[in-house]
Amino acid sequence: MIKWTYLGGIFLAAILALAPAATMAAEGPVLTLPELISMALNFSPEVKASKSEVALAQEQRNEARGYRWPQFDATGMTGVVPNARLPVVVGQGNALSYPDPKNKLHGVNIFGRMDFSVVQPLYTFGKIAFREEAANRNVKVKEVGVDAKKGEVIFHVSEAYYGLILSEQGKDAVREARSYLTDTRVRIDRLLAIRSPNVRESDRYRLAAYEGGVEKFGAQADEGAKVANVALRALTGQGNGANLKVATDLPTPTAPKSLDHYVRTALELRPEFTQLKEGLAARQLLVDAAKADRYPSFFLAVVGQLAGAPGRKHIQDPYIIDYFNDNYAFPFVGAKWHFDFGILKAKVNQARAELDQLRHTEKTALMGIPVEVAQVHGKVQENYKASLGMEKAYINARRWLITAFSNFDMGIGKLEEIFTAFERYGVFRGDYLMALYDYNLNLAKLDKVTGAFRSSLPVEAVPVNQKK
């Protein structure tokens, strides 16, 4: 990704040996990595999408919780119905006569009817409670998923941030290298003009080769800075504005802690482990809920009817309920029990299979995540030690370079030794910068794979509509 940051040869050596780094005019405030991370987390559409998943899970939990409360059902209808008058007593035997028997039509009229019921669950053997708690665990899974998405955003911001620092260092190096090489060419030309034995015509060609390398490196550094800036602006939601200003030096490395420390941190904080833990609890609850479906559910209910038809008389007989023209409501306690010969058993087995699958996934994670942590920790250790070694190498190469210049100025040294010292110093300095970059980037990755980033996440403001 950042091959353009490697400076091998005279141009980097000369820059760092003979002149301080150039300072660019600031077009805006210098942004720190924590500030950029905070901006990115506030803007990130991916983080917002994961928060929407939390909101969905919360409403699913509210749905499961809602089954605890009464449910009201009503059905309304209207239509036509035959007219009907009340029966009359006739004859000596006081027999009832129906003027409008139901097998004959004596005119029609309209009717209106509404049936309603209110049902309150009393005891369900855990059908509701288990599913409600499972939904609550799912909310926690989604909340931890937000942290996992934040970890990805933080790593991408860190990657662009450290890359931008290196690219800006490279651009400064190119500016200084061009100035130095121009001055060196003047000196070579002057010594050649007086036929000095300390320089040769081929030194001009060698210097021109270095100038070509500088131009190539300059183009790579310019493009690298543009890409890193575009990436940071995109991650932080800054659009196509001015270039972002960041620190000029990479953070100095410190010795990483032991591998055991980071493995313990991963087992405690890594989002995937938390999700697996909550997911296992949710699956177990769903297994319990599937088992509870085998048992009856007890409830309290009120059932009633409101019906009226202008063409029909209301009858007071308690044994007769007129479907079209009568009103009633009464409470009762009941039980509902569904039983089948295989469906419920299959559902329980399905829930158990999903639980077993998640348990195996947890075992896989327990094996794989420590290995991943160990790999990244090894890279951090390697880069830390490399930075110490290459710092020592480039410091001594700089001393070598200064000594070569002094000897050349006193007439006891050769230009060839200066060129060699330039090349070694450039290689060692480039390796040192690369080790610093790799160290900081792998340290950010170590924070991601262990979940340590969760301990330093910016505190989010609670929306007004969610405050209690």
Q: What order do the strands of the largest sheet run in, or round the barrel if closed?
A: 1-4-5-6
What gyration radius follows from the Cα positions, in whole Å?
A: 41 Å
Q: What is the CATH architecture term?
A: Up-down Bundle
CATH superfamily: Outer membrane efflux proteins (OEP)
CATH topology: Outer membrane efflux proteins (OEP)
How many β-strands, per DSSP?
Answer: 6
What is the mean pLDDT? 82
Q: Assess the beta-strand content as a share of residues.
A: 5-15%
Span between termini? 48 Å
Task: Explain what the structure shows.
- It is a single chain.
- With 468 residues, this protein is α+β, with helices and mostly antiparallel strands.
- It has a single domain (3-73, 125-295, 340-457), classed as Outer membrane efflux proteins (OEP).
- Helices cover 60% and strands 12% of the residues.
- The protein is built from nine helices and six strands, in the order αααββββααααββαα.
- The protein has helices spanning 10-18, 33-43, 45-66, 127-193, 202-236, 259-269, 271-292, 343-409, 415-450; strands at 71-82, 88-90, 95-97, 108-123, 297-308, 327-336.
- The strands form two sheets. It has a four-stranded antiparallel β-sheet with strand order 1-4-5-6, with no helix packed on it.
- The longest helix has 67 residues, at 127-193.
- It is elongated and about 155 Å long.
- It starts with 9 loop residues before the first helix and ends in an 18-residue tail after the last helix.
- The model is unreliable at 1-26 and 462-468 (pLDDT under 50).
